[in-house]
Amino acid sequence: xxxxxxxxxxxxVLWWSAVAGVWLVVVNRWLMHWxxxxxxxxxxAGSLLSAFAASTLIGxxxxxxxxxxxxxxxxxxxxxxxxxxxxxYSACEIGQGVEPTLMNSVITxxxxxxxxxxITVPGLPCERLRVAQLSDLHIDHDLxxxxxxxxxRAVSEELPDLLVLTGDFVSRPEGxxxxxxxxxxxxxxxxxxxxxxxxxxxxxxxxxxxxxLLNAGAVDVGGRCLGLAREHGAIAVCGTEVPWGPNIPSxxxxxxxxxxxxxxxxxxxALADAGATIVFSGHNHGxxxxxxxLGALVVPSRYGRRFDRGAFKVADTHLIVSSxxxxxxxxxxxxxxxxxxxxxxxxxxTARRPTRLRRHRGSTx
Length: 365
Ligand SMILES: [Fe+2]
Hints:
CATH topology of the largest domain: Purple Acid Phosphatase, chain A, domain 2
Radius of gyration: 22 Å
Number of domains: 2
Shape: globular
Structural class: alpha/beta
Strand content: 15-25%
Bound molecules: fe (ii) ion
CATH class of the largest domain: Alpha Beta
Largest sheet: 6 strands, mixed
């Protein structure tokens, strides 16, 4: 064993890269449903340190030198598969003029962007419907209150018909009074405001978060559907908080246009099966830390980076994934601006044949 050999350094770097990749794919997905706390932090730190220490010891043995090439090769195949799937889903980055600013700014924690997308759907009982979305506020003293208020001002300037709030309003109990202050402004941003909760709301105090938003005049759609009258019929606004809260509700049979709030985009396949028209999600924060050209480093999704942020089409269901407004701890975003999402839904004139749902579960991305 050559403990001091500098020649072994490239081999060690390969091993560390392979271990980091395996950790992201395997351990991260296992940990993502754990409630934040000391136990989770200890497991993250312990598993990473153990993995790096073990790989350092193994990496000094020439016998194992080809193993990291194999691991990295498998991870690269997973990445190629992810790119292929995104192409099949017609996935695109939501928004206009977002990318050029990314290279100009490393820390993008409060560089709020407005991301616009227009989609055409059948069964819309009006000519157009403008839906604004705010997600993952994570309201806290780490960022100034006027920043969170500016997200509501940005929404009101877009004159939306509806505002949907897709969960993770708070990260800690200390955020609840701030949420109350923020929620008092929410109905000034749009004529109708709907919400469902995210994992952090459930981990902090789901009942308290719900009460604050209900008292402010927002409508809770977690686990249920509401019919809204439009010019030529009705639309359904529904919500689910699976896997942390209320299940996917039964969609009303007589209303073909179903707009669904689901904190995690991982529910999109089940919602497409159920007949959702558009799903609004957040949860992934666009990765929160991104590397230009490489993308998100860690995404808390069973599908890895497949739905990190952007607009997607899964069978006949549109999926919109917001990057979020706030940031999970640490409250920093790197090359990953927060966003206000504005979706213009336009009525499709002629009916298309329904698309068969293709499933691509369990990728190695
Ligand atoms: Fe979040």
